[in-house]
Write a structure and sequence with these properties.
Order of helices and strands: HHHHHHHHHHHHHHHHHHHH
Distance between the termini: 19 Å
Number of strands: 0
Radius of gyration: 22 Å
Oligomer: single chain
Number of helices: 20
Strand content: under 5%
Length: 483
């Protein structure tokens, strides 16, 4: 028995090492709240006006509806495949595998987008503070090395790093918030941004399209099931806390931006220089030292998002490798750190290839690399959320786990997420920062083509490797891997 137990432990992730709060740090860090507020929120204000804060609340409310069905299915899923496992439960093996491949590609694309943004921001910050100049891709590769080293180590190390960075992000934004509130803003404090006349406008659809992208990835709480302490409670709690925090925090900070410049001045300020909106507010209400600190923390915010996305992809690789859908080496566990170290190394190598490819192509790291890959990744994840909701509705409709309430929650979630996806597609040029039809078609086509390829791969497995096909999405990761 002792040898069997040791074998299981050697082949498994670091079980029970993460509390629900650690999982929240992983998920919220991936959202990069400081980066989202400084780089994306001004765009929401520019296109939606002063009602933008309500857009983040609405996006959070829709995400919360999804979370209800998602967390109610958690006790019936016994591995950490997230979208893969959840969709397989209700819609079958082929849909589950196709969804897993879309998830892997989508999270990779989101990670590549952050590398582009990180390279540009880190390069600018280092140049201004240390007078060291270098191309964006050099700094992106530095990020690959740092993230690779942390991803290779124990998941607890990554959790501690993410916790420290996330707390720092929140504190610096709260410093601005307190200063604006204490000083009464530009024209006094008001809740007018939440009034119907400012919310229900023709531009709110575009605001929602931008806001939804800020919540992408919160469902990755399920990827840490095997490393969570008491996963039956930790995963639902982490999911609700992450969604609730992001919705309230995003809305509050965007409201602070409106107060800082005034109801009549914030849109003009955003139009003048969107990237400088929050820095200008910090300069005005707190001081230059805080602005400098915010710039540094945006760099660390990017690193935190990269590490979180890196860990998410490697855990998908672990789940798929453990079932021999992808090479089994991806599920190999480091004997000391208990991390999926081979998957981590492969992920780092892919990031290097992506960064160099975009650099050689001469693309702009922010306006092209980050915008295009983030858009494709976000579309993929939103589509998977909608498909997961379909699976939830089907799974709870009948059988031993029948629950009319949860099934109808799944149906409602499908409707809401389908509407969200339509809004993103209808305003795709805002996300991709281009009206080039060919580029936008490719952005939409990528997740679709991956899903179709996944269905074809599943069909091949069914006819050529029925033993592997029969176990899709059902692996008990508590058991040691076979040789």
């Amino acid at each position: 028995m002792g040898e069997e137990s040791n074998a299981k432990q050697a082949d498994s992730l670091q079980r029970g090492s993460l509390g629900w709060h650690d999982i929240v740090f992983f998920v919220v860090a991936a959202a990069a709240p400081l980066t989202v507020m400084a780089a994306v929120a001004p765009i929401a204000l520019l296109i939606g006006g002063v009602g933008a804060p309500a857009g983040y609340l609405a996006a959070g409310a829709i995400s919360a509806v999804f979370a209800v069905g998602f967390t109610r299915m958690a006790p019936h899923v016994h591995n950490n495949g997230a979208f893969y496992s959840y969709i397989r439960q209700g819609l079958g093996r082929a849909a589950g595998l196709a969804s897993a491949l879309v998830a892997v590609v989508s999270y990779n694309l989101l990670q590549f987008s952050v590398y582009g943004l990180f390279g540009a921001v880190a390069g600018s910050t280092v140049k201004d503070f240390l007078s060291i100049d270098g191309p964006w891709w050099c700094w992106a590769l530095v990020g690959v090395v740092i993230v690779g080293l942390l991803g290779y180590r124990s998941v607890q190390v990554g959790a501690k790093v993410l916790a420290a960075i996330l707390v720092a992000e929140v504190i610096i934004l709260m410093v601005l918030a307190v200063a604006v509130i204490v000083q009464g803003g530009a024209d006094g404090l008001t809740l007018a941004p939440y009034e119907p006349s400012n919310v229900f406008t023709g531009q709110m659809g575009a605001v929602l399209a931008v806001a939804f992208a800020a919540f992408v990835g919160f469902e990755s709480t399920a990827l840490y099931r095997d490393e969570a302490h008491d996963p039956a409670r930790a995963i639902p709690r982490a999911t609700y806390v992450a969604v609730g925090f992001l919705a309230l925090f995003y809305s509050f900070i965007v409201w602070i931006a409106v107060m800082a410049f005034g109801m009549d001045g914030v849109v003009a300020a955003a139009a003048k220089d969107p990237a400088a909106l929050f820095f200008t507010a910090m300069d005005t209400y707190v001081g230059g030292w805080a602005t400098d600190l915010m710039r540094i923390l945006i760099v660390s915010s990017g690193l935190a998002a990269l590490l979180s996305l890196h860990n998410a992809v490697t855990r998908y690789g672990y789940a798929l490798g453990s079932e021999a859908v992808l090479p089994k080496a991806l599920a190999r566990i480091h004997p000391e750190h208990r991390s999926p170290y081979v998957g981590s190394l492969v992920q780092s190598a892919m990031a290097v290839v992506a960064v160099l490819a975009f650099a050689i192509a001469g693309t702009d790291p922010v306006l092209e690399m980050a915008a295009w890959t983030a858009s494709a990744g976000a579309i993929g994840v939103l589509a998977l959320q909608a498909l997961t909701s379909v699976s939830i509705a089907v799974f709870f409709r009948s059988g031993p786990h029948r629950s009319a309430f949860t099934s109808w929650v799944g149906v409602l979630s499908v409707v809401l997420l389908a509407a969200a996806l339509w809004l993103v597609l209808d305003h795709l040029d805002i996300a991709t920062l281009t009206k080039n039809v060919a580029i936008n078609v490719v952005v939409v086509a990528v997740p679709v083509m991956v899903f179709v390829a996944g269905l074809a791969y599943a069909a091949w497995l069914r006819s050529s490797r029925p033993d592997v096909y029969g176990k899709l999405g059902t692996a008990n990761l508590d058991e040691p891997l076979s040789a």
